[in-house]
Amino acid sequence: MPIPADDASLAEVAAALAAPGKGLLASDESVGTIGKRLEKAGLVNDEETRRAYRELFYTAPIGKAGISGAIMFKETLQQAAADGTSFVDCLTRQGVMPGIKVDEGLLPFEGHDLATGETFTRGLDTLAAAAAGYRQGGARFAKWRAALRVDASRGLPSERAVELNAQQLAQYAAVCQAAGLVPIVEPEVLIDGTHSAADFGAASERVIGATVAQLWRQGVALEGCLLKPQMVIKGADAAGGRAAPEEVAAATLTVMRRVVPAAIPGIMFLSGGQSEEEATLNLNAINVMAQQQGKAPWSLSFSYGRALQASVLKIWSADSSRAAEAKQMAVALAAANAAAVRGAYDAAGKHPSVTSDSSLREAFRGWHGPTASAPAAAAAAVAQ
Amino acid sequence: MQHTMAMRLSSSRGAGMPAARSSSSRSSSRSAARAGRTTAVKVVATSRFEASNPFMEEMRATAAHIATRGKGILASDESNATTGKRLESVGVENNAETRRAWRELMYTAPGLGQYISGCIMFEDFLYSSTAAGVPFVDVLRKEGIVPGIKADTGMQTLPGTDGETATQGLDNLGTKCKEWYKQGARFAKWRAVLRIAGPGQGPSTTAIMENAHGLARYAQIAQENGLVPIVEPEVTLGPGSYGIEETAYWSERVYSHVFRLLNEYNVVLDAILLKPNMCLPGLDAPPATPAEVAKYTTRTMLRTIPAAVPGIHFLSGGMSEEESTLNLQALNEACPNAPWSLTFSYGRALQATTLKTWAGKQENWEAAQKVLLSLAAANSQAQLGQYKGPHPSPGGGRILQALRTGGAGK
């Protein structure tokens, strides 16, 4: 399916990204974040390795497998496949829209640290000019991530964090729409912690509710944006093991129905903290339940990073001559999740994943800056 | 500054038209599944207030029942003063007995429950009976009609504004709700009114914040005491030449604030009903066709009302009886797969001709009841998107009513 014409409206682009049976590949990890993963897999974090890694995905037939858009990091937007074809062309020629991460990472509030505290997100000052440039370069949509933490004992998420991040998300969205990019609005409520699913749901209602109110306040056209929330799941350190997909589905749909206006065409869930298989099973359960119950006027889809990549990296990092196999894995993961969007994933069958690594404990997740060590980077960032 | 807001509305957000989305971008399997769905929506309590409220399950069931497809609400909660004015306008003396008899005529219309799922009552009549001594709440319940109660005590002008109003009634509301519940009410209603003074002159921030707060506080108290709150933020039809797009803009602004506060006050949206205005141009502007009303109203609802709300029950405001039905039909044609029921909570649009037909005369009793039933049936069909006409009360001009303040609930 060809991507929307250059002069298509934001609503058309958003609807195409969230079309039935389609989802997004989140491949926009910053140099620092992707670097840690490459190094953990025994590879060198240099520009060529990062380029070759992304080439696996963009030259695999992921479009046919159900990917409607791929979020890229700014470095990647400028890169090309080994044969010289730009990554933008590799994607658009197979009906996949290029997207671009436009935030510049998280920064902790004074007195907070990244691992345990609250943050806001950098990047608004230079966004307008950057957005225009990205649109020129072929991007059709953008993404900005805010992170909020649940910890009832400390009163988190605090009102300050909720309000400031909501305002920043809305400002980012308004600027992007003015530049012709569909904004993906990502208010991620972190899965870290011991909270119950109900408490996570309450926090999600607060956070997403505040975000939606700010979107309206700042003149963002809801028909031309997408939401990227976390599913409603109990904390990673909560007792009782992993929740059943049907529980995740019931809790997630309850919350989404309460805070997401029908005008937003798609809810593209993130996969943070879930394994590849969990992410597919949960998404499938959500869509099966939505089809059975109705009252779900938006697409319930995916914008997955790790859940579409972990097994690919595992194969390729073990032996780079297995690139073809790695590409097949990229397609298989995409297809499994596209089936889940239709509620048609065979839950009793075998998931293509070859790793259960949920990379939940990535302390560097959401890191700001290049390969500097954690404390040094944080100090440097705060000192600016 | 106000002008900038009106201009901004057309440039940055006018474009998106989601109405067609329901058929074109949803997969056919999804629509088919929805048409034949049998699974009840499972709601997970997300706050300890919700989890520990013993009325929560009953309230969700009540809200779902009132929002049953093909049904709507009869709004008959006019204050005694307002009822009096209407009785006098058809030559009926205004006293406690005529007011009671008028309600009895409506509530005992045979088969009313086919089309009406809920009835908003004025407090006096929650405690009244038929001439034969059968309590009104029993008459209604037997027909599957849930009795509801007007919870607010009317409006007062907001000092420091240009004649804008706030709604009164929070004092002692919890105690009153308990008593109303005991008497058989299972839902309540609170009407907040916002007004557009002219082109580019929408409700002030003060009025929006005050009325949103009142609605959220009332809703919270009602739910605590087992009553499903109907939340009514009315952007009222008034004089002025402002266009329908401006009404839509201000309506979005008001509803966005209201739902923000409902969220902050832990009001469970699965157990409320909304009673908004349809989007109409000002009285001095050219009237809008039903298709235009549908386009802007559905867009506004899709942008601001979460899917968890089971029913959106539009008020009829100043619309004529026929206009109220035609517009409701157009809404359901424009949005056939809406996540909430797009239905009615009509007062004047179900009562005007009914009252005229009765005119206080016993010999007209059955004929008047037949008129009520035919009006209810027409709107029931419109809710299903199946209204074809002719209308039982065709033509008819706007039925306007001045905003009344200072009534203190009487």
Walk me through the structure.
The complex is a heterodimer of chains A (384) and B (410). Mean pLDDT of chain A is 92; it is low at 363-384. Chain A contains 13 helices and 10 strands. In chain A, strands 8-7-6-3-2-1-10-9 form an 8-stranded parallel beta sheet. Chain A is globular, with a radius of gyration of 19 Å. Chain A is α/β, with parallel strands linked by helices. In chain B, helix 15 packs antiparallel against helix 16 (365-383). Chain B is an alpha/beta fold and 410 residues long.
Summarize the structure.
Chain A has helices at residues 10-17, 31-40, 47-58, 74-77, 87-93, 127-136, 159-178, 197-217, 245-259, 276-293, 306-318, 323-341, 374-383; strands at residues 23-27, 67-72, 97-101, 106-108, 119-121, 141-148, 182-189, 226-227, 266-269, 299-304. Chain A has 384 residues and is an alpha/beta fold. Chain B contains 16 helices and 10 strands.
Secondary structure layout:
The complex is a heterodimer of chains A (384) and B (410).
Chain A: H1 10-17, E1 23-27, H2 31-40, H3 47-58, E2 67-72, H4 74-77, H5 87-93, E3 97-101, E4 106-108, E5 119-121, H6 127-136, E6 141-148, H7 159-178, E7 182-189, H8 197-217, E8 226-227, H9 245-259, E9 266-269, H10 276-293, E10 299-304, H11 306-318, H12 323-341, H13 374-383
Parallel strand pairs in A: 1-2, 1-10, 2-3, 3-6, 6-7, 7-8, 9-10
Antiparallel strand pairs in A: 4-5
Chain B: H1 2-12, H2 21-24, H3 28-35, H4 48-52, H5 56-66, E1 72-76, H6 80-89, H7 96-107, E2 116-121, H8 123-126, H9 136-142, E3 146-150, E4 155-157, E5 165-167, H10 173-183, E6 187-195, H11 205-224, E7 228-236, H12 244-264, E8 273-274, H13 290-304, E9 311-314, H14 321-334, E10 341-346, H15 348-358, H16 365-383
Tags for this entry?
heterodimer, A: 384 residues, alpha/beta, two-stranded antiparallel ribbon, B: 410 residues, 8-stranded parallel sheet, two-stranded antiparallel sheet, 10 strands, disordered N terminus, EC 4.1.2.13 (chain B), FBA_I (chain B), fructose-bisphosphate aldolase (chain B), Aldolase_TIM (chain B), lyase (chain B)
